[in-house]
Amino acid sequence: GNSVTQMEGPVTLSEEAFLTINCTYTATGYPSLFWYVQYPGEGLQLLLKATKADDKGSNKGFEATYRKETTSFHLEKGSVQVSDSAVYFCALSALTNAGKSTFGDGTTLTVKP
Amino acid sequence: GAVVSQHPSWVICKSGTSVKIECRSLDFQATTMFWYRQFPKQSLMLMATSNEGSKATYEQGVEKDKFLINHASLTLSTLTVTSAHPEDSSFYICSASGGASILETQYFGPGTRLLVL
């Protein structure tokens, strides 16, 4: 079946540091890939997505590139802020699973001033 | 952007009572809605998928008689936790997607925190 593996957390960074959260996936066919962010006590917000190989999703300074050859969708940001502290989920959605999303376990990011 | 609301955001109830949670798509028609459960510091667990006008499809291990899902319109789905018990306490999140493709982006509600005493 489909699966998503995320870099284990928690991740603690200083403000303005570079962020990478690794995400790899296993899926049949050609899934769409997503990053979601969850702030404390809230639901998930879509951060960015990519629907085909080599697509780059970007939003609010975050980027991730759909790499089919390495089955990866790593999240990056050049300079994190305290307000980026949250839990980040990598997810995929595939036709072979009726469009249902498969989520990674989430990575908690804490940014210190 | 697409907005999904949930009501209530918090609910505390006594064991044995039933609780209804509403999920609404405010500015788009949601052909499909998903219900998830999230335990503290864990990922989302899909409970069921509902399509407007048809019966919900439940994931393996989810009791359909306990978690009643109704998707009566293109903007509203409800989850009723029947005869709730303390082990049902959790964070329940819905998501909604519209459009013809089943790979349409899901938009998530803010979640409902249920505490059963």
How would you describe this structure to a colleague?
The complex is a heterodimer of chains A (113) and B (117). Chain A is mainly β and 113 residues long. Helix content of chain A is 0%, strand content 50%. Chain A is built from no helices and 12 strands. In chain A, the strands form 3 sheets. In chain A, strands 2, 5, 6, 10, 11 and 12 form a 6-stranded mixed sheet that branches. A 4-stranded antiparallel sheet of chain A has the order 3-9-8-7, with no helix packed on it. Chain B is mainly beta and 117 residues long. Chain B is built from no helices and 11 strands. Chain B has strands at residues 4-7, 10-13, 19-25, 32-38, 44-51, 57-58, 67-73, 76-81, 90-97, 107-108, 112-116. Chain B is globular and about 40 Å long. The mean pLDDT of chain B is 90. The chains are: A mainly beta (113), B mainly beta (117). Chain A binds chain B through residues 32, 34, 36, 41-46, 49, 51, 89, 93-95, 98-101, 103-106, 108, and chain B through 6, 32, 34, 41-44, 46, 49, 93, 95, 97, 101-111, 113.
How much helicity do the residues of chain A have?
under 10%
Alpha-beta content class of chain B: mainly beta
| Beta strand % of chain A | over 45%
Residue runs with pLDDT of under 50 for 5 or more positions of chain B: none
Q: State the helicity of chain B in percent bands.
A: under 10%
Secondary structure: number of strands of chain B:
11
The most extensive interface, with participating residues per chain, is: A-B, 24 and 24 residues
Radius of gyration of chain A: 14 Å
Instruction: Work out the radius of gyration of chain B.
Output: 13 Å
State the low-pLDDT regions of chain A, or none.
none
| Secondary structure tally: strands of chain A | 12
Assembly level: heterodimer
Shape of chain B: globular
Specify the biggest β-sheet of chain B.
7 strands, mixed
Mean pLDDT of chain A: 93
What is the string of SSEs of chain A from the N terminus onward?
EEEEEEEEEEEE
Mass-distribution shape of chain A: globular
Give the class of chain A from helix and strand content and strand pairing.
mainly beta
Main beta-sheet strand count, sense and barrel state of chain A: 6 strands, mixed
Spatial gap, N to C terminus of chain B: 37 Å
Count helical runs of chain B.
Answer: 0
